[in-house]
Amino acid sequence: MEMQLPPHEGDELSVVDMHTGGEPLRIILGGYPEVKGDSVLSKRRYVREHLDHLRRVLMYEPRGHYDMYGALIVDSEIPEADLGVLFMHNEGYSTMCGHAVIALGRFAVDYKLVKETKSPETQVNIHCPCGLVMAFVEYSDGKTGGVRFLSVPAFAFATDVKVSVEGFGDVTVDISYGGAFYAFVNAQRFGLDVTKSRTRDLVDAASAVTNAVKAQVKLHHPTSDDLAFLYGTILTDGKDDYSSDPTANVCVFAEAQVDRSPTGSGVTARVALQYHKGLIQLNQTRTFQSGATGSQFTGKAVEETKCGDFKAVVVEVAGRAFYTGVSRFVQEPDDELTRGFLLK
User: Fold this and answer.
1) 278 and 257 assigned to the same domain
2) What are 88-123's pLDDT values in tens digits?
3) Catalytic residue numbers, as ranges
4) Is the pLDDT confidence value at 2 over 90?
5) Residue 216 is part of which domain span?
6) pLDDT at residue 305 above 80?
7) Is-contact 234 182, C-beta < 8 A?
8) How many domains would you assign to the chain?
9) pTM value?
10) What would the DSSP string read from start to end of 132-173?
11) How far apart are the C-alpha atoms of 134 and 105, rounded to whole Å?
12) Which among 136, 209, 135, 117 has a CA at the least distance from the CA of 168?
């Protein structure tokens, strides 16, 4: 039987689904109205204020789920960018997403969004809300493979910050930026293990830290107030000293959403933090493992730089993304749940 669209009203929403280290990415190809704005950051504000119902349609059930993640390709105001992108999730819109950049790099080459392909790597310039990110896609005999990317300047914002966390008392955290701000804390502080403890317990502890930091620590970013918010908390195994062995973490971001991958922007922020503390040197590669799935990224600081008054580094993160399917979503006017819902 030939596939065809069922009865519906309005435009169809077409997507390509991928995953990076187990973390989903729903890339939106068509069905969105024009996204207005003269910059990627202003486009981010526009979709939040005018098109947020479509985020809920695609991220929420019945078409998505609580932990769905999405990417909307938009035009960039930067001439050297191959594409601009807006990231979305269960709460709203993030400023950076490493797992999505890895997937989008491969997607951009496969879907011919770059002017020219080269072997052994094809460069893809992706304009994220946090800035221009350069991805490098393995390319040979017409096939794409692994992807590495160079981050925007990443820096340690504050270390050894004491916050009062409901249910846990005083907790000492580090805060670091890797395209988004994260709080970092050893899971052992809560009697937890990022690879063995129940996901619910990890989420509860991380969410409590996130709420405390948001209430008690004022963040700022040198280039834009739009970037000055805490995206989530990353619980680690505490193995921050340089080692050839993997170090594991679990990221809980947005509205208690759990990253299945090691978290690309989180790896970026964690490398910047380790470099700031003198625990790693330039070009020392570390392997970062997801406590949720066991999937792995590598990360290393490759260059010192500045971000305003902050001493910063450019971080290279590498991983692999895979296709899982394509979909054409529709809406029926008498469907009371068509705009989406979440089970919490």
Assistant:
1) yes
2) 999 999 999 999 999 999 999 999 999 999 999 999
3) 97
4) no
5) 152-316
6) yes
7) yes
8) 2
9) 0.96
10) EEEEEEEEETTEEEEEEEEPSPBEEEEEEEEEEETTTEEEEE
11) 9
12) 209
